[in-house]
Amino acid sequence: MDTTIFQQAFADSQVLTVPWSIDYFSVIVGVLTGALFACDRKLDIIGTVVLGLLTGYGGGIIRDVLLQDHGVYFTSHPDLIVICIAICVFVFYFRGLFRHLDATVFFADALSVGLFALAGASKAFSLEQGFVLSIILGAITAVGGGAVRDICVGETPGIFQQSNFYAVAGLGGSFAFVMLAYAGCPLPIAGAACVFAVVFLRYWSVYFDWKTRNDADLTPHVARGLGKVKRVASGVFLHGGDATVALKERRRRSRWRRRDRED
């Protein structure tokens, strides 16, 4: 199926406009989590503000740079930048207020990831970027800010390490939105499904302790499988099979024993 024709059929008539309040909320929560992260790393006020802004805007900036010539969200809302700076300053000087709000901050963070995924995927879809790129840009918007934040403090980004679903949740939400959008589902419903998928995957991965793996070497399994295939093939085509392999092994051992006696 030609994706260009499919896009033109829906993208022109269906463009999801995220309410400014929800849009602002996602950025503010991202900035809040970034500022708290900076406080945990003992950064000063400048570091807290910069890290907060990078967390809240980083994914969107990467998305807009990749899209090219379609406007950068960061520069389009200067009033939001001022609000975010004020939040960073407040967190820096009153960080004690957030020590007992772990559950609330976690929920807000999961929700903001879902909203970021929605913002990235919906913008890419409306600009006719294709099925695959819309999913990728949605995921980048969802987790890009956190990755940039970790890099700035000299850490390997959490999305690249074994952890509960974070990038996976962003990908899942983006996929849900794009799939429903291409299927002709009303975009508000697709957007709600995107946010729900992200929050659902994030919470369930923590509740059941589902984690991405950091060691998944399939080489031994493939080698054993190929060995079995080789033995079966030799039995079918060379009339030898396992008996031939065993005979060769006995002969090889016999030669080694003779050499040992001679030595």
Automatic annotation (TrEMBL):
InterPro entries listed in its UniProt record: Gly_transporter
Membrane topology listed for this record: Multi-pass membrane protein
Residues in Glycine transporter domain copies: 22-95, 107-181
Compartment(s) where it occurs, according to its Swiss-Prot or TrEMBL record: Cell membrane
Organism domain of life: Bacteria
Keyword Transmembrane among record annotations: yes
Transmembrane segments: 20-38, 45-62, 74-94, 106-125, 131-152, 164-183, 189-208
GO CC terms, sorted: plasma membrane
Keywords recorded for this protein, A-Z: Cell membrane, Membrane, Transmembrane, Transmembrane helix
Homology family: Belongs to the UPF0126 family.
Name of this protein: Glycine transporter domain-containing protein
Gene source species: Eggerthella sinensis
